[in-house]
Amino acid sequence: MNTDLAHSILGQLGRAKRADDRLTITGDGDPVFQTPWRVGTAGAAALGAVGLAVSDLWRLKTGKPQSVAVDLNAATASLRSNTYVLRNGERPVSWDPLSGHYPTRDGRHMFIHTNHPHHRAGALRIAGAEGDTREALAAAVAKWDGLAIEQAIADGGCVGGLTRSREEWNAHPHGVAIAKLPLIDIVKIGDSPAEPLPKGDRPLSGIRAFDLTRVLAGPTSGRVLAENGADVLHVAAPHLPYQAELLMDTGHGKRCAWIDLREPAGVETMKTLLKDADIFTQGYRPGTLAARGFSPEQVAALRPGIVCVSLCAYGHEGPWSSRRGFDSIVQNVTGLAATQASLAKPRNLPVQALDYIAGYLGALGALVALARRVEQGGSWQVRVSLVQVAHWLANLGTVDATKGAAELSDELLLPLLTESVGPLGRLRHLKPVVQLGETPAFYAKPAEPLGTSPAQWA
């Protein structure tokens, strides 16, 4: 398949196509699954760009590039990789039964996210549900106009979004603001001397990545770094909600530690770790960590030369930049879900393309910024959001969804899977998608539960 889209992503980051690039993308093209959106093309391009960025680091380390191969079916499957996880032969549950679409009084549909307990309780309370069942929530939402409950959910610190058409979203003030942003950007936020890559037999050997993220996009970014040799410390806090079953998808190759930023000792521990980190990835809304002393500029002052990756739902500009959101919500507000089916009966995509692609792009930005640090020094900030991915995906156009499959055949799927045994039991999960000619990607350790490891570098 054509590799131009992968090179165009890298081109946005100032990395021109090289004569010695050896990227191959194989597969028949979209649709792989039953969706009109070109999710396979998008996923394969993002992963192809990741592979070339890994090759660039290997070139900087050894003087020679390596070949990169991406299979489109594997790339597409990776956009729903959590659905392929089996734990001791059973499929873990990751969706609350109340999450989903709800008709409103004015004939619209509201998608409400309830996977976190406080979001579930908040949605029931804000809507005025007389009970904690899906039926009770539906009856309550049906008494609201769509825009009114969308605003009430947002004002209440919960998560939901009104299903819009593409035309509605493109005319929305936030849609207009996001349309002006690139898919991904890198900004220099400080000066520091150039740093060579650490020695080692993998592209990211010796690179330390502090992963302060939850759910899918951020943890996926860290997983990509881990599969190429980085020491990834995934940090969470015991008091914050976390869909721990998602670690069976995104936790491979990482160590998981607790840090509580409500406590002075936790703040000091994080500062100490960041002083020795190369990459700091965080998945909170703009400004959230700055209030605790960990804005990109503050982190760069702690550790000159660090790469700060910021992943969020709605981007760093526009009226919704501080709004909470997840893949499912952004699919609905941007018109992807309406195009998947119809505005009258919206349906989410069969993949969580925004989450996983944002994760790949976060890793890509970190890799490109590391290369810049080798060649010119400096501290860097990488910015990616789910809504920017949604705009990019929509701009790729549509295909005939009926030609896609409900699921990959066993003949196609089984070669993409592997098993690992560790603290979470026997896990079946997807292998790394990007195939590298010299340094095959792999997970050096199995996934582990939150808080298993001490908050220190290996």
UniProtKB/TrEMBL annotation:
GO terms for molecular function: transferase activity. InterPro entries: CoA-transferase_III, CoA-Trfase_fam_III. Keywords: Transferase. It comes from the Bacteria. The keyword Cell wall biogenesis/degradation does not apply. The keyword Magnesium does not apply. This is CoA transferase. It comes from Reyranella humidisoli.
